[in-house]
Specification:
Blueprint: E1 2-9, E2 15-22, H1 25-34, E3 38-44, E4 49-50, E5 53-54, H2 64-79, H3 84-94, H4 99-113, H5 118-123, H6 131-143, H7 146-192, H8 197-201, H9 209-244, H10 246-258, H11 262-283, H12 288-296, H13 302-316, H14 321-328, H15 333-345, H16 348-404
Length: 405
């Protein structure tokens, strides 16, 4: 999914602006029109993503931890027998140390007291709660089990947050290691090696080839370091532009999926996300077609999102979920067999949640496997490069001494 910034006229004739996720600009416009808005401007919001993992926060939104906290505590208060308005008052008092959360609960409380449903009150807090979240609240309210649904939502959000933190935390050490490695090489080539240049200058062509290469590289970096920085900035700008455009992002998303190990990680992440969301929605009485519309909006990889859109069309034509997914050949075979078994036994939602649990574990295994390969590879590569620089300098020093003799 892509994040879009919009400006629109609401039912009161006022101009509102915010951010929404959609497959493309046309889908975002349709969403706004369906909610009663008149779109004025819709454009991709600034958002960075890499290999299908969202790496940047969203301005104007509560943190995921705050939403999990709100959901879990509200579920506990409702299940204990407190009415909704009283539960919100208690939550507002508990959230005094979180100004943003406290203000949001206060706005929701005002709406609820004026007769607005909880789902509609949440929806009016533009850009905070996902469509999935809002539909779950509506399903719970319609079924008279809002507390139970909120409790399930809290578990779902905690699982999703844990999965994201697992990936993010796992990538911290390799990232630091890579940055420190490049910084170490840059310092050696721009500050350490030039200290020996004057001593080597008199040696001329008698210097070993390896030393000439190292000295030449160091000299080039001293004079043209700005090309390196400019190249990095250009690459980042290029990817930011490519990943901000839905058409080019879909091309890159397809490339990420084809990469060894990385593609497996992305697919495991999306399978876990799709099956958990779909299973949770179906388990709370949402129809499969409505659930698919919501699920597509939670998917980051546009290739997977397009496959789900085609699957939705196949289901509208009367095909089962298994048959529709099998034609796209996106989901792994084991997930497909479990979905087929769930449909045949009438326990599809339970089986989908089991698939999510399995592929959560698969993702953690994939991350651990990637780190097991990446960390020693970075360390060995850095060691070889630094050792090569040191050896080339030592060889040059020995060479100069031989010439002096």
């Amino acid at each position: 999914m892509t994040l879009f910034f919009y400006q629109a006229v609401n039912t009161a004739g006022e101009i509102e602006e915010g951010e929404r996720e959609a497959l493309d600009e046309a889908s975002c416009v349709q969403q706004l029109q369906a909610d009663g808005y008149i779109p004025i401007r819709v454009k991709p919001a600034k958002r960075q993503a890499f290999l299908g993992f969202n790496l940047s926060g969203r301005s104007g939104k509560l943190s995921n931890k705050s939403i999990v906290l709100l959901t879990g505590e509200l579920a506990m208060l409702l299940e204990s027998g407190l009415p909704l308005d009283r539960s919100l008052v208690v939550l507002m008092d508990l959230a005094n140390d979180n100004e943003n959360l406290s203000k949001l609960i206060g706005r929701v409380l005002e709406k609820v007291k004026s007769g607005v449903s909880l789902a509609d009150a949440f929806e009016q807090q533009t850009g905070v709660f996902s469509k999935f979240y809002l539909n779950m609240i509506r399903a719970g309210a319609a079924g008279g089990n809002l507390g139970e649904v909120l409790n399930r939502m809290a578990v779902y959000l905690e699982s999703s947050q844990e999965l994201k933190e697992t990936v993010s935390t796992a990538l911290i050490y390799p990232t630091i290691l890579l940055v420190m490695s490049l910084a170490s090489l840059f310092i050696m080539l721009t500050f350490v090696v030039p200290q020996f240049s004057e001593m080597f200058a008199s040696a001329g062509k008698a210097l070993p080839v390896s030393t000439q290469i190292v000295v030449g590289l160091a000299d080039w970096l001293q004079h043209y370091w700005w090309i390196v920085i400019g190249g990095v900035v250009s690459i980042m700008t290029y990817f930011n532009f490519q990943l901000g455009n839905p058409e080019t992002k879909k091309v890159w998303d397809g490339r990420w999926l084809k990469l060894p190990l990385v593609g497996e990680m992305i697919l495991n992440k999306e399978v876990a996300n799709v099956t958990r969301t779909l299973g949770t929605l179906l388990g709370n009485g949402v129809s499969i077609l409505s659930a698919f519309i919501i699920v597509r909006e939670t998917v980051d990889n546009l290739v997977v999102a397009a496959a789900l859109h085609d699957t939705e069309e196949q289901i509208k034509q009367g095909k089962t979920l298994f048959d529709a997914l099998e034609q796209k050949a996106i989901f792994p075979k084991m997930a497909m067999q479990m979905i087929k078994m769930g449909e045949e036994t009438g326990h599809l939602e339970e089986m989908l949640l089991r698939v999510a649990t399995i592929y959560d574990k698969q993702l953690r295994v994939s991350v651990a496997r990637m780190l097991a390969l990446l960390e020693p590879a970075l360390i060995i590569t850095l060691g070889i490069m630094i050792a090569g620089i040191i050896v080339s300098i030592l060889l040059a020093i020995l060479s100069v001494n031989d010439l002096a003799v």
